[in-house]
Amino acid sequence: MNRSINVTIWNEYRHEKTNEKVASIYPEGMHKAIADGLAVTGTVRTATLDEPEHGLTDDVLASTDVLVWWGHMAHDEVNDEIVERVRQRVLRGMGLIVLHSGHFSKIFKKLMGTSCDLKWREADEKERIWIVNPGHPIADGLGEYIELPHEEMYGEHFDIPQPDELVMVSWFEGGEVFRSGCCYTRGMGRIFYFRPGHETYPTYFNPEIRKVINNAVQWTAPVDREYPRYGHAQPLETIKGIQA
Amino acid sequence: MNRSINVTIWNEYRHEKTNEKVASIYPEGMHKAIADGLAVTGTVRTATLDEPEHGLTDDVLASTDVLVWWGHMAHDEVNDEIVERVRQRVLRGMGLIVLHSGHFSKIFKKLMGTSCDLKWREADEKERIWIVNPGHPIADGLGEYIELPHEEMYGEHFDIPQPDELVMVSWFEGGEVFRSGCCYTRGMGRIFYFRPGHETYPTYFNPEIRKVINNAVQWTAPVDREYPRYGHAQPLETIKGIQA
Amino acid sequence: MNRSINVTIWNEYRHEKTNEKVASIYPEGMHKAIADGLAVTGTVRTATLDEPEHGLTDDVLASTDVLVWWGHMAHDEVNDEIVERVRQRVLRGMGLIVLHSGHFSKIFKKLMGTSCDLKWREADEKERIWIVNPGHPIADGLGEYIELPHEEMYGEHFDIPQPDELVMVSWFEGGEVFRSGCCYTRGMGRIFYFRPGHETYPTYFNPEIRKVINNAVQWTAPVDREYPRYGHAQPLETIKGIQA
Amino acid sequence: MNRSINVTIWNEYRHEKTNEKVASIYPEGMHKAIADGLAVTGTVRTATLDEPEHGLTDDVLASTDVLVWWGHMAHDEVNDEIVERVRQRVLRGMGLIVLHSGHFSKIFKKLMGTSCDLKWREADEKERIWIVNPGHPIADGLGEYIELPHEEMYGEHFDIPQPDELVMVSWFEGGEVFRSGCCYTRGMGRIFYFRPGHETYPTYFNPEIRKVINNAVQWTAPVDREYPRYGHAQPLETIKGIQA
């Protein structure tokens, strides 16, 4: 597929500046690694927390088809008005891909309505991400599972609304499972939550993980249609003498 | 069924005090009519906007299995802290039945994550609520449809997440359709949105409408289990020398 | 989008030969009108009931990405082995678009598992197909609804499994509603049921109806991946001395 | 809850007669162990493959609210007419609980429309069944997971339609995951697939497994309403001079 899709990758970009291990894996930031993995014909831009308006100005969002979100230690520093600005864009059709610890971001929690809480553990353990919906576009080109030798564990119960479509379920060495690839539509916007990507592992260089993110960009890209009209409506048919 | 279920009916209770037509239909308030229609073995209480804490104290909520919500003209006057208090209860298992104009209540919007907007028209028109999931417990004891001779119209697009289960779809004389009976689970709580019930019609005296609300009380009643544990977790299996 | 997609349009092609009104609307068959409305970069072929193997040989199906199905008066004449052949292709990823009276085709009933029964009436009545999921790819480029001045009525209850995604709901002049645009995944195959298209109306010349079918071709087109492996499996991890 | 529900437990009942290990665990048959675990106020009956009409006469089915199904080595010996008889009952509201290897039964495959295939392995491995929908009635009274020290492995991809509600996901020691507790509605009937229960393990004596089956009996029990009317319908509203 070669639709032109404009992607903006938002990264908190803090761990990379303060943690040597993270900096050694992602010297230019996780957003750079994610951007390098994208194969789209439109633009690929990045934005980070410490830029003015977190890099998410009205202009940037207006020209964004799909927004990718990675955040972790500074969710609370994201300005509520900007969160609402992003949410309004999603409801109007902008795609949103929420990665890993973004499960606790303000934008994801606000769109889901639940706590988005989960179990976690950092123990360098093996993760195997099984495809449970092999006909889904986000599973295009993948094998039966993606194996990551070392990742942070996320375990159920994951407090999310039941996904409209569940594409992936993870197995963890330490004994847990997790719904790792979850599709939603909210308003006109499509949302994909994708679990892997702890900052201390080179997950976003993995070709299969990159393939998933590329597929998700295609899947979340907006349709071309007007926002619905809401509010007071004239009848379309005649009712008791009210002219339609 | 005769599980003991404690129900609290929350009503804004403003139209009844200021509008003669509404007062003549619901002289003791819409909450009273809804309460009179319930057939449960537990308690039935009511609470209204102008009571202290809107009648929704911690104690009241702690002893509520299912909360029914009707609001319209004063959504904005509902205190945000109390909205969050209700939401936390829902996530922990309290059932929530949102009626008619409650689609725009803070609690429903916060749990859905979308705008919850829709089309509307007041034209005394006929509504026919078709059952599209006849095996669902909320359809128990009903015919193929419920016909209301006069109601306010609500039309699509209704900006809600796709329901986990869609039970009813309305036909309106003026030319619109609407997803009128929508089931959700959020956290451990079950939510049912039910469309009819404009304040200027005696809808909540209708035996079939009352049947639906009774069914929904049964369906949204909580299970008996602990809230999941979230946060840091020890491994259940041995990982690389970490003792499970 | 310009993925190359090979489409085969299957038509029963009986009404056109025996009914003057139908012949006057669709002189070359309904399949020809549907084919003329497609805008794909791959091949567009047609197949009909009275061809050998109904035109659905192994070779034809092997080179078909999306199969469109219209049948009505001769569902029973479709050979069971060919139905199973089509079903196996769907489970392996071939898209299937089932039109109108195809709701009672052997292939749709076999894939759904339910009776697929419904209410119907031929009364030249108005249909208005409302979009209830405006962000869905099948809603791309459409307005808020599609209005057809005259169509056969199909009414609820429609005995289908709850759609994975419900995109459209019809309003009918005579008082009924119908879930008109329904998305399913079965195996690796995606299925879209689309209601309109009675043989006595020129529905398949309508540009908006054609737009929906084009969108559905894109949506049902298969992913590029292997069929999952089933059956006996060796462990991936060591279990009690069994070497993984 | 104490609704009166009449349950019939169907068991293939072959392994118990030919395999010493199975006979030692289930000397009176698996159906007897499942029946002993039920706590319902209605009747509990059993039926087996080698009885006339497999024990599933019209009379038996007419007085059955919920049918439980266990089969494995002799799926093909189940008469097609009786399978269709059961399916018709399900579509008219009878609940169906399909256990373990019943995934490959004729009745389950016919209701699902897919191959219902999966991966499997007999290696005495540990299974941990995680609850992913803790507010669901089938999760009532359970902890966060059910642990079975030894079970047969079933692994993804499990070729089923996406469940209407997914309640449980299994973790297996050998590296796989599986959607183990799956809810469907087909026609008016509710269906629950529950994974565990290989014949060589005493799984149906496990109190938590028995709790799940009891919960599922409550959840699948039919509503009290008429079967919908299908076929030709008179208009409910006036259309162009046709009297409603």
From TrEMBL, chains A, B, C, D:
InterPro entries (UniProt xref): Class_I_gatase-like (IPR029062), ThuA-like (IPR029010), Trehalose_catabolism_ThuA_prok (IPR009381)
Highest classification ranks of the organism: Bacteria, Bacillati, Bacillota, Bacilli, Bacillales
Protein name: ThuA domain-containing protein
Domain of life: Bacteria
Residue stretches making up the ThuA-like domain: 6-220
